[in-house]
Amino acid sequence: MSTHHGDVMRVADLPSSSLQQLFGRYGLQLVEQTTNSAIEGSYWGDSEAGVVGVSVYVRPDTPVHSVLHEACHVICMDEQRRTELQTDAGGDDLEEAAVCYLQVVLADHLAGVGRPRLMRDMDAWGYSFRLGSTHRWWHDDAEDARTWLISKGLLSESGEPLFVLRGGV
């Protein structure tokens, strides 16, 4: 359901190595495709990121929030689902909330992005939260997602990413 808002930050807007460095900390592979090619493993199609196993596929016009969201799906799913991953990350509602929470955290680990910018881009794309905006959800309604990430060993008690993939179930 991409709305093609031209003002969202895209992969081409980032310093060239920033995504590779972040993904490398998780053992994820970033696969950059050419602008007009169909993105491998993309659930939404168009310029949206795709996932296959531990690889995240992007184009220069892929929105940064999309890349982070799909990468966080790979990070948050258990090993069994990760080995079978092809396009549809699946997961329940709480895991989806955890994915959204973690992508906001990881935005601070990409030069020039940060949480406020990513939240604005998520809102522009059409993420929907009970409280109406990503910012309000993250600050006032996301404790369950934060707790889930901590319980799965993906986030420290202080809210810092641990840069590991989720293990078993």
Number of strands: 3
User: Based on CA inertia axes, which overall geometry fits?
Assistant: globular
Largest sheet: 3 strands, mixed
Strand line-up across the major sheet = 1-3-2
Topology (SSEs and partners):
Layout: H1 18-26, E1 29-32, E2 50-52, E3 55-58, H2 64-76, H3 79-84, H4 93-107, H5 114-125, H6 134-140, H7 143-151
Parallel strand pairs: 1-3
Antiparallel strand pairs: 2-3
Helix pairs in contact: 2-4, 4-5, 4-7
Explain what you see:
With 169 residues, the chain is mainly α. Strands 1-3-2 form a 3-stranded mixed sheet, with helices on one face. Helix content is 42%, strand content 7%. A hairpin with a 2-residue loop joins β2 and β3. The chain has one domain.
Keywords:
169 residues; mainly alpha; 3-stranded mixed β-sheet; 7 helices; 42% helix; 7% strand
Quick summary:
Helices cover 42% and strands 7% of the residues. The protein has 169 residues and is mainly α. The protein has one domain (11-151).
